[in-house]
Amino acid sequence: MSVTAARAGTGLLPAARELHLLPSRWDRPGRWLLSAVVRSKRMGAVSCAITEAADGNRPHTLVRGCRLMGWGVLQDRSPWWMGECAIAYDLELDVAWWKAMEVGPDLGPGLPSVAILAVFDDPATGLRYLTGTSHLPSAVEGDMARKRHTQRVGAYQRAALNYRREVRKARRKHRPDVSAVGADWNLNGLHLWARVYIRSLLPGHRLLWSRKGGTHGPRQIDLFLVWLSKKARRVLRRPVRSRILPKHRHSDHRGVALQLRLRRRRRRILTTTKEKP
Questions:
Q1: 210 within a domain of the structure (yes/no)
Q2: Total structural domains within the chain
Q3: 88 close to 37: Cβ distance less than 8 angstroms
Q4: Of residues 111 and 170, which shows the higher confidence score?
Q5: pTM of structure
Q6: What distance in Å separates the CA atoms of residue 245 and residue 22, rounded to the nearest whole number?
Q7: Is residue 4 in some structural domain?
Q8: Who contacts 276 (Cβ-Cβ below 8 Å, separation ≥6)?
Q9: Residue 249 CB: number of other CB atoms within 10 A?
Q10: Alpha helices (H) in the chain, listed in sequence order
Q11: Cβ contacts of residue 237 below 8 Å, gap of 6+?
Q12: pLDDT digit string (tens) for 56-105?
């Protein structure tokens, strides 16, 4: 299907594609989580990487609701706690690959840290996206700031390094044009030392943060790391930016939106592409 057919009646591609991080809360109703995904879709998101998605009726409600609005859900439910992280996505995107994985021994209480990664091909832009999220252990920020190596800090660092390894493997194998991986890092990105640590996990990626505002109270702990290929730099306007989303009742966090803005000339070229057999 051509781009024109995919966007029938609009005449132009959207000015931007958005990838969202939606850190959720496990004890809130599934219908609230679904409403947050609906809100993201209205904002222009084509994918939402979600944490704390495994409990109660949340997986069932998410899958059923997304199906009704033309979206799909990537989530591993075997065993149930592997569903901690999920990705909801617009079915306009083609899923090239995805994987949920255990990255660390101790999210707490008694559950491992989990991550999810997915590779999407976007027919509208011709770009391939690698995106995903992880939920890393909490209650480590003070000790890491003071360089105290506790058992929990060790669990955090192992989880972060394992997440990095999985991202690197996915990049080598699937060669995305945009790598936009996030996490509930449980480290405050307003602190220089925390930004240095998170950036060190994926050299070459840019950490997106804001000088004002928080995603969990006053702390910015939900952040994207972003890398663009040469092809993506030709297609997209720069700099690539993120913004903190308004608060929503599905979570005690605020989500984050990554905006991929198309260059005007590229939008004209793509929207006049003729349909191929």
A1: yes
A2: 1
A3: yes
A4: 170
A5: 0.91
A6: 9
A7: no
A8: 2
A9: 12
A10: 3-6, 30-43, 58-68, 141-145, 151-174, 192-201, 230-235, 264-271
A11: 261, 262, 263
A12: 999 999 999 999 999 999 999 999 999 999 999 999 999 999 999 999 98
